[in-house]
Design goal:
This protein has 4 helices and 8 strands. It is an alpha+beta fold. It has a domain of 121 residues: 2-Layer Sandwich (Alpha-Beta Plaits), CATH 3.30.70. The strands form 2 sheets. Strands 1, 2, 3, 4, 5 and 8 form a 6-stranded antiparallel sheet that branches. Strands 6-7 form a two-stranded antiparallel sheet.
């Protein structure tokens, strides 16, 4: 069954609770295999906004990449996301970082996420649960991408998810 990594972020309302709700919603259509710690992070792109809470979840899903995207967008809608400005404040943000080792580029979807390898708030939590995962386009492991990262934005571990979601796994098939 396909494996995917989803980046979760929130900087409006109860940021941690928003992320917990997102994981619960995701678990209704995918199996949660691993979940990173919770990180507070400096905004990227538009800096004059509240800090984010970010994490990464590893899932197993029967959904195709486009169906997974549609399901994640539905979760965002149910949790109250309103797109008002690019990189602006949001209740929840769910991005597909990787889906198996696929490289996809369509109008609606790009996998791997086109900026994930440039963002500490993605790479640090991802390295916690899948350090040896190899970026399918760059052919470099997540841990090596993190070591070479020039992004110096603040990313601070602030906690763990409730125990029901705290299973961590570094296993990832290298097929």
């Amino acid at each position: 069954m396909p494996l995917a990594f989803i980046s979760i972020g929130s900087n409006l309302g109860d940021r941690v609770e928003n992320c917990i709700k997102a994981v619960r919603e995701i678990s209704s259509f995918a199996t949660v295999l691993a979940l990173s710690s919770i990180y507070e992070t400096e905004p990227v792109g538009k800096e004059d906004q509240p800090y984010f809470i970010n994490c990464v979840v590893k899932i197993e899903t029967e959904l195709s990449p486009s169906d997974l995207l549609a399901s994640l967008q539905s979760v965002e809608d149910r949790l109250g996301r309103r797109v008002e400005e690019r990189w602006g404040p949001r209740v929840i943000d769910l991005d597909i970082i990787f889906y198996n080792h696929l490289v996809i580029e369509t109008e609606e979807l790009t996998i791997p996420h086109p900026r994930a390898h440039l963002r500490r708030f993605v790479l640090l939590p991802l390295s916690e649960i899948a350090p040896q995962l190899v970026h399918p386009f760059l052919n470099v492991s997540i841990s090596k991408l993190l070591e070479a990262l020039k992004d110096k934005k603040l990313v601070v571990k602030v906690g763990e998810f409730p125990s029901v979601y705290s299973q961590k796994s570094t296993a990832y098939p290298q097929t």
